[in-house]
Amino acid sequence: GGGGKSRAAIMASPNTLLEENLRCSVCLEIFKDPVLLHCTHSFCKACLDRSWNGKEAKECPLCRKISKSTPLHPRKPMVSQPGNQTQALIAGRQQRYLLHHHAAAAPQKL
Predict the structure, then answer these.
(1) What phi, psi does 34 have (nearest 5°)?
(2) What is the pTM of this model?
(3) DSSP secondary structure string, 1-34?
(4) What gap in Å lies between CA 28 and CA 22, rounded to an integer?
(5) Is 90 helix (H, G, I), strand (E, B) or coil?
(6) Tell me, what's the pLDDT at 46?
(7) Judging by beta carbons within 10 Å of its beta carbon (0-12, 13-18, 19+), is residue 26 exposed, middle or buried?
(8) Please, are residues 42 and 24 in contact by the beta-carbon 8 Å criterion?
């Protein structure tokens, strides 16, 4: 009996799998200005806008789950509350900076 790898295993290279994860299921192209719905499906912003055009219920084009809040931009900061996120980011950086420099300045006991 001839063993070996199946044709499907050879066909599914890591590159094609990666590309599949970066494709919009509406236009089947690599995402342009991707948005993430709360059901974790991603789409191009333009595709989602077209899909939702004139509809009252903002549902996922893939699983039809209704999205009650605005979609997220996974590669961009949240647009709705820029102040809070920026402040949190700055506070986190300050804290890490202080911890790092305090630890470095403290005398080391061997």
Answers:
(1) -65, 145
(2) 0.50
(3) ---S--HHHHH--HHHHHHHHTB-TTT-SB-SSE
(4) 9
(5) helix
(6) 95
(7) middle
(8) yes
Structure tokens given for 14: 């890591």
Span 59-103, pLDDT tens digits: 999 999 998 777 787 655 444 445 556 666 766 676 676 666 655
Contact 52, 72 (CB under 8 A): no
- Cα distances (angstroms) measured from residue 24 to each of 44, 50, 59, 77, 108: 6, 13, 15, 21, 54
Q: How many CB atoms lie within 10 A of CB 48?
A: 23
Helix-strand-coil split of the chain, %, nearest 5:
40, 10, 50
Measure the CA–CA gap between 42 and 61, rounded to whole angstroms: 10
For residue 23, which phi and psi values (nearest 5 degrees)? -100, 140
Q: How far from chain centre, in Å, is Cα 7?
A: 31
Question: Which of 99, 90, 82, 75 has the alpha carbon at shortest distance from 22?
Answer: 75
